[in-house]
Structures are given as structure tokens and as C-alpha cells.
Specification:
alpha/beta
């Protein structure tokens, strides 16, 4: 068996115990039910923008796990450009949550950020133990991602004001499920205490 490569194919990220994972926030909301989801995602995105700024100041890495819109020839930057330049409903949300140059991203083909993606490999190289997970939709892609993270023994924090679903009921049920069955903490982002020294 080959030795474990200490680098991520030449790019060596700093080791961090905590990471912020953003699920499907680069989103055009151009699908059935997208209008309802967008109306709830916009205030969540404003909270998430403030949380992202706090995590960056704390030295916590930010990872975008995003759908590829079913286009196997697409890439993450193309998705950002589509949401900013094609007159889609989600433009305002995407402007709030634009990735920075030092952020990480993975494309996911299905609901969970872990399924058939490089997310697990990236988290392993970063040395992450605690995941702060936010994004859209709370009762679908966020929930599936949290479930898979739980099965991989991550400590989980889901800021309740930083996720959104098509209906308030769906969002409440998802948060309740995460708390009861997936051992997730679900504080509002303003009450979330970030580690002072995050690096290993």
C-alpha cells in the first residue's frame, strides 16, 4: 500500500479542527418551489454572510459544496458566473455569499455533499473534527449532508438562522431531526462561539 501523500496534490492546506461548510448556496433558485425557497434563503444568507466573516477572522476554512445543476461539464466558477450574469432569481443570494480566493469548493452530483465527491478527502487533509454546516435547502441537501457527516463521526453545529427550506415547517422538522438523531447543536449564528485557536 502506498504511503499517505502529505500534500493535497501540491496544495498543502493548514490543519484546522473546525470548518464552515456551505451547501448549495451558489444557487439560481430556478426550479419548482424555488421562489418559496428564495424568499426564506435571502434572510438566511444575510446571517450566513456575517457568520462567514466571523469564521474567516477566526482562521476557520470555508468550503462550498455545490450541485453541478446536472451538467457534468460544468465547474464551480461557471456556476457563480451563471448566477451573477444570467438574470436568475438567486442573484442576490449569490452576491451575498460569493467565494473568496482562499475558499475551497467541491461539486456534488446528488443531495449529500459527501456522496461521490471529494469532500471527505478534503476534510481529512484539513484535519477537521467539527463541521459548521449551513445552506439550502435545510430539509433536503443540508439534512442529507448532516446525516452523512454524522455517520463519519464529525461534531456538528447547524446555525438555525443560516439554513432555509421551502416551508417553515420543513425547516423546523429538519432542525429537530438533526438535534434528536444526529446530535447536532442548532444555535442561532449570533450565539455561536467560535474557537479562538482553531489550528492544530
Amino acid at each position: 500500500m502506498p504511503k499517505r501523500n502529505p500534500s493535497l496534490h501540491g496544495a498543502v492546506p493548514e490543519k484546522c479542527k473546525t470548518a464552515l461548510l456551505l451547501v448549495d448556496v451558489i444557487n439560481d433558485f430556478e426550479f419548482p418551489g424555488g421562489g418559496d425557497l428564495f424568499s426564506r434563503a435571502l434572510p438566511a444568507a444575510r446571517c450566513l454572510r456575517r457568520l462567514k466573516r466571523r469564521t474567516k477572522r477566526a482562521g476557520i476554512p470555508v468550503i462550498y459544496a455545490n450541485d453541478n445543476f446536472g451538467r457534468w461539464q460544468s465547474d464551480f466558477r461557471a456556476q457563480v458566473d451563471h448566477c451573477l450574469n444570467d438574470g436568475v432569481r438567486g442573484e442576490e443570494v449569490v452576491k451575498l455569499l460569493l467565494p473568496d480566493e482562499d475558499d475551497f469548493f467541491v461539486l456534488k452530483p446528488k443531495h449529500s455533499g459527501f456522496f461521490a465527491s471529494s469532500l471527505g478527502l478534503l476534510l481529512g487533509y484539513l484535519g477537521v473534527e467539527t463541521l459548521i454546516i449551513a445552506g439550502f435547502a435545510g430539509d433536503i441537501c443540508v439534512l442529507y449532508t448532516v446525516n452523512d457527516a454524522y455517520m463519519r463521526d464529525f461534531h456538528l453545529i447547524i446555525p438555525a438562522d443560516c439554513i432555509a427550506s421551502e416551508t417553515p415547517e420543513g425547516n423546523r422538522h429538519a432542525l429537530a431531526h438533526m438535534r434528536r438523531y444526529l446530535r447536532a447543536r442548532t444555535p442561532d449564528s449570533k450565539r455561536l462561539r467560535l474557537p479562538r485557536k482553531n489550528r492544530k
